[in-house]
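Researcher: I'm preparing a figure for a lab meeting and need a structural model of a single chain. I don't have an experimental structure, so a prediction will have to do for now. The sequence is pasted below. Please return the structure as tokens so I can convert it later.
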Amino acid sequence: MPDYKEFPLADTAEGLTEAEILNWQVSPGDEVSVNQIVVEVETAKAAVELPIPWSGKVTELHVEPGQTVEVGASLLTIDLDPHGASPADASASSGGETTVAGGGQASDSSEESATEEMKPLVGYGSTERSTTRRPRKATAASAGASSADPGVGSTTGSTASPAGTSAGVSTAAATTTAASPEVVAGASPAAESTAFAAEGHVPLAKPPVRKLAKDLGVNLYTVTGSAAGGVITREDVRHAANGATVAAAPEQSAPSAALDDGSRETRVPIKGVRKATAQAMVESAFTAPHVTEFLSVDVTAMMEMRERLKQDPAFAGAKITPMVFAAKAMCLAAKRTPDVNASWDEDNQQIVYKHYVHLGVAAATPRGLVVPKVRDADSMSLVELANALEQLTTTARDGKTAPEDMLGGTITLSNVGVFGVDTGTPIINPGEAAILAFGTIRDTPWVVDGELRIRKVLQLSLSFDHRVVDGQQGSQYLADVGALLSDPAVAFTF
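Model: Understood. Here is the structure written out token by token.
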């Protein structure tokens, strides 16, 4: 007997509430093993590959690429016993009865699956789920009026289907007298749904089809499915929309942009990394009182040192960039001015001083701005820091940053110089007290010992939370970073 189980979108240990499906690694009919990657999703922070905690055969995918689903929503259905009895044999042996949670008859496999816990997965913890078998036939005893509009995939009841929607309804609704065809034809969409439900008709459609029906204003209770088993397809919905003189707009998948005003405007849904970034920036800008200071620095000595290190065998294979020196200088200077490495705890009315530096690195990616962290950057050597930064930025651009690497930063470095920009006024990352912007390095006329020379000069800007960092402390920190970059030998004095 088949043993169906739902695979839900779990919280990947970062407190997310939703995720977008990027692509599937499996198809219906594929057999999978424990911890096999089955889908890649994009959360508000990064792309994450999700493994499945069971082995079996994939029977159905409930979400299409581009769709956004909430945590707990069913992603796919798997048959844990694909080589057992056929569905026809299972139906015959059970007398065609439908499993109903909280009442009716349930198979032994369903009772076992109701108490089974998901095995721990790679990347996120276990989640306890209760599932039942998909009903094979809707009857008047098991179908009735829904408390929500069934045409949009939000029906409620007690019998769960693999699509994650409910087909069961209350017993009181099931005993309602069936409405006549004349009443149904002239009634409102809500009345039509109630009447058809009372007759025992329950529309079968996947979530994408239900969404299309909602967009086109089609009541699924009035549509006859053309696929096997009476399942409603997209073409059925479009045909019903045309027959009801509803103008059917060209269908667009979730991630595509919508054109408006004669193709002169493009509208893109706000979601994923962009949505999270916007919320974080608004929260920071209107919560923490920002102060920004600027400093021009002659970094000729630093660039000369960089060239020497390239010839040093100890640095072979390490990518020593100016940003590496900036990261090292920030960690050293934070020891003299710990206020910039602190945070404001509004709930407990405390300033929290961190005795470690989890350095955030703002990285531009195809999905938007992300800020992964270098853990304990203050304890790393220059080579270790260079390797960590290279790995971090490469992973971020590929969209493969682990969720835990996005959390818990103490101070952030933003390299705007890579875009040829001199400086800016960066917004503090929420939960931190300061962010340093590192500008481009230019050949600039500079006065040295009373003489005008061409030197390597960059602009630094520091934004800090004035609740935590006073002007004197912010100025001291910025001056220390500048001194370390101007003359790396100053590090010996720290």
